[in-house]
Amino acid sequence: MKCSFFTLLFALCVCAFQSTVAQTHHIYVTAESDDKVYEIAFNANTQQGNISDVIPVGEYPTETEGPHGINIGLDGNYWYLSVAHGTPYGWLYKFKTGSNEFVSRTELGMFPASMEVSSVTGLLYVVNFNLHGDMEPSTVSVVDPEAMAVVADITTGIMPHGSRITTDGKFQYHVSMMTDELMEINTANMEISRRLNLNSNPSSTPDKMANGTMPAPVVKPTWADPHPSQDLVYVAGNGSDEILEIDTKAWEVSRRFKSGKAPYNLEVSNNGKWLVASYKGEGATGVWNLESGQEVAKITNSRKVTHGVTISPDSHFAFISVEGVGGEAGSVEVINLLTQKRVEVIEVGKQAGGIIYWKKTD
Amino acid sequence: MKSIKYLFCTAFCSLLLLFTVGSSCAQQADDYQIVVSPESLKLQMDETAQLSATLQGANGNVVQDSVLFYSRDRTSVSVSQTGKVKALQPGTFELQAVAMSPDSNRINKSIQVVVSYPPITAISFQDLPKQLYANSKIPVKLSATDAKNMSREDAQIQLSSSDPAVASINEFDQLYAQKPGSVTITAKTADVTAQQEIKIVENPVTDIQLQNDAQNTRSGDVVHFDAQPLDASGEVVNDLPVEYTFTAQPDDNLGEGTSGQIKDDGRFVANKPGLYTIVARAGNVSAENTIRVDARDIQKELEVVGHGLVSDVHTSDLWVWEGVDGRDYAITGTWGGNGETYFWDVTDPANMSIIDTVTVDARTVNDVKISEDGRIGVITREGASDRKNGIVILDVSDPRNVSIISEYTRGLTGGVHNSFIYQDHVFAVNNGRRYDIIDISDPENPATVSRFELDTPGHSIHDVWVENGIAYSSNWDDGIVAVDVGSTPNAQSPEQHSTGVGSLKNPVKLGSYSYPSGWNHAAFPFKSKSTDDFYVIAGDEAFPNGLFVHDKPTIPAGWIHFVKFEDGWDNPKEVARYQVPEAGTHNFWVKDDTLYIAYYNAGLRVVDISGELMGNLYDQGREIAKYVPTHHEGIIPNAAMTWGPQPYKGHIFVSDWNSGIWALKLED
Known about the structure:
The structure holds two protein chains of two kinds.
Chain A lengths: L1 H17 L5 E8 L4 E8 L4 E9 L10 E6 L5 E6 L7 E6 L5 E6 L4 E6 L6 E5 L10 E6 L4 E7 L4 E6 L5 E6 L4 E6 L4 E7 L23 E6 L5 E6 L4 E6 L4 E7 L4 E6 L5 E6 L4 E6 L4 E7 L5 E6 L5 E6 L7 E7 L4 E8 L3 E10 L1
Antiparallel strand pairs in A: 1-2, 1-28, 2-3, 4-5, 5-6, 6-7, 8-9, 9-10, 10-11, 12-13, 13-14, 14-15, 16-17, 17-18, 18-19, 20-21, 21-22, 22-23, 24-25, 25-26, 26-27
Chain B lengths: L1 H30 L1 E5 L2 E4 L4 E3 L1 E5 L5 E3 L3 E4 L5 E3 L4 E4 L3 E10 L5 E10 L4 E7 L4 E3 L3 E3 L1 E6 L11 E4 L5 E3 L4 E4 L3 E8 L4 E9 L3 E8 L9 E10 L11 E8 L9 E3 L4 E4 L3 E9 L2 E9 L8 E7 L5 E9 L5 E8 L4 E6 L7 E7 L8 E3 L5 E5 L10 E5 L7 E6 L7 E7 L2 E6 L3 E6 L7 E6 L10 E5 L2 E5 L5 E5 L23 E6 L6 E8 L6 E7 L19 E5 L8 E6 L9 E4 L2 E5 L5 E5 L6 E2 L6 E5 L14 E7 L2 E6 L3 E7 L2
Parallel strand pairs in B: 2-10, 12-19, 47-51
Antiparallel strand pairs in B: 1-4, 3-8, 4-5, 6-9, 7-8, 9-10, 11-14, 13-17, 15-18, 16-17, 18-19, 20-21, 21-24, 22-25, 23-24, 25-26, 27-55, 28-29, 29-30, 30-31, 32-33, 33-34, 34-35, 36-37, 37-38, 38-39, 40-41, 41-42, 42-43, 44-45, 45-46, 46-47, 48-49, 49-50, 50-52, 53-54, 54-55
Protein name (chain A): YncE family protein
Organism (chain A): Fodinibius salsisoli
Keywords (chain A): Signal
């Protein structure tokens, strides 16, 4: 008994010690104008990061194909990448995590962008942003990530973007940028279950991009992220410079927060406390306390065109991709959410875009 | 101490409890399963079936009476969410059923669906004559169709002869007429049989009259041989196929490679100088001609006249033009950089210098074009920070003070990779998907007047060149495509082309030609001054060994294809190629009967394309000159990556991805 007691004591000490040893966070980020994906390692103790690997992607080396959206599969063994420009449709690529070995690819719609896998169906839902196409309804492609086969196309709004799924895997949320709508997909029946107009004051101004056939969007939402534990979804209002909170039970906008210029991506931390938003229009990142509804910090980024956000599962660090302009390198910028300070800038390829947290190692 | 002990005991018990609960949960998850009825399916094409499925617990109790069905190959076998299955293509496929167990674990079940190939219902002989001459040979061609009226290339068909002594069939399905008599040829699959009677008659040919048009023949010249099988009375026997072959005695016979090539229609080309004996055979009668082929002997040296080094960014395309002030200028783009375009004074090619720089919001300015009057420039944008890309229209009337007239992005936000200016209109290759035709007669207010886009699955486009009202585009897998955008009577086109069927506002497709590699990257019309033959020259781009942007030289692949449209737009024939080993083509230009090729790692190649073209011109001594431009301060040092050539006022200007702009001159 004495022996067992001390064995248990030792084990607990080891556990306690492990919590203080170096922890490394691993992130993937795309470089849209370099046709590359970067694997980044960030040491939480030294608060320094480095590039672990650079993965060239695409088929036509002298043309820019535009890797845009990126996410990790449910088991953490694969990462998935949307490549915007194909022939003419874009593609979903599948790579092994760690070795970054290419596995396979499947063709999607026009300019596929954000994606996530549902734990309910095991299927991947990727929006076909169709950024450069005509003003017409696009689709969400549903892909079996094991077989890399498209199993359904769900018709949605115009320029859909920002595909994120609830913790329970039951609902996928994305926005229809050019119709000012939040869309909800029931992942199990692969249908749009609800759509919500986000514009409190719809404009009657005709949209030039649509040749005047529809009202000009005002909110121009670009991202939706469900709260990890509450019935809330947060939306980036890229056109109205606001962040919207949607109560999914009441299916209405519950709060609107005036934000920095042109919020583009956002993410709610796992503990539900922080919302981190990229302000594309001013090269900055906003950190919001969701309880108080206050922006607690606005951190200027090292360069222009702030793009993506991913937060470590321990809610300690936010990793921000910043595109840069022209021949300038893109960057991944690390924000310590406890101090709300930028602690590291890691330069990557041009037009850093889609970014996703992979794992933490000791 | 007691309290610490209590704490650890509590922790231990908690861990034990967690472990127990975890094990219990895992066990419960394993107990659930999806039960599908039927478990697998065997269907005929177009047949439907209904699946039903439930989620059951360990004791077989149904906990959920519906699941999600989907197909992993929905174009071959479809399934609705309620389980209705339809077989669309033959083969073996997989459906999936998915459900969530009450303990929130995902349960999957695979359902195999085997769709049978429809039975073959008909076999037919293709163009097999009912009468053959003894000692002649003919390939037996067959076609098979199935119950769904689909052509079946995969059909296993056995051929046999009723009397092999009269006519035999070899393992390559060639029929040999052995001696006079009658024979039945049988084609058979497991279910279907087809037969054809053939009569073998005595071969009447007693002589072959063989003529040729050889005259001072050089390597690469096509010589036409014409064989006329004659009977005893001197009459021509038209229905006996003639086979051509040759023997060679090249001057250099020491381990020499292929010395020449002959076609079924009697056209012959020698790659090497020497004596060639061409043999024509009809049945068991033959005739032969011997000709002398001399070396083409056209090689020249290329002199480097000048070089403008660009070492901090990759250089893309170039255009050289005479400015409104009578001086000569060049424009070069940049690739993967900061959106710069350089303007050069090249009046003295030995002293080329940058005289102005325009920087736009882009990572790549891939293409640069100047209008015929030398006043308007168009540059393309990719990687703009606002993702609007499009084209930028420049006032280049004073190349030392170039100004931006307008930026045009409407409908072009996906990026413009290439462009062409024709009659105050810009053809802008839009997002690799189509080209937009944009009126720039008012350059401050450009306006899109039409678009041309293929409708093939997975179509794309890389470049476009317009001449005499026909747009020749290069389209990767879809090959070269000719489109009438207001063709003129001068259009370099087949005789059968009716001019003016399309316009800038209404582009009309005329014809196309694709080839298996899918590497088509450039297209250029060519009407031979020496023969009047019309070709579209297609160029490849391929990087099977990868593209290295910074660290080391690249070894691309690909070649030049000569495609003839002599029988009209619907009948393209690829007749010749120019292929440098271990290298890859990029852009090219034709002037008179000379082809200038930027052959990436193989540098600039100047090729004689006069006369009829056949075979691989590289092997035939048709290469006039080559120069491989490298520089030790290049962005990749000492490595050529030649991008684009342009012959201009007696010089050849070349842009190189690694080292900038070069001016060369052919030495006499």
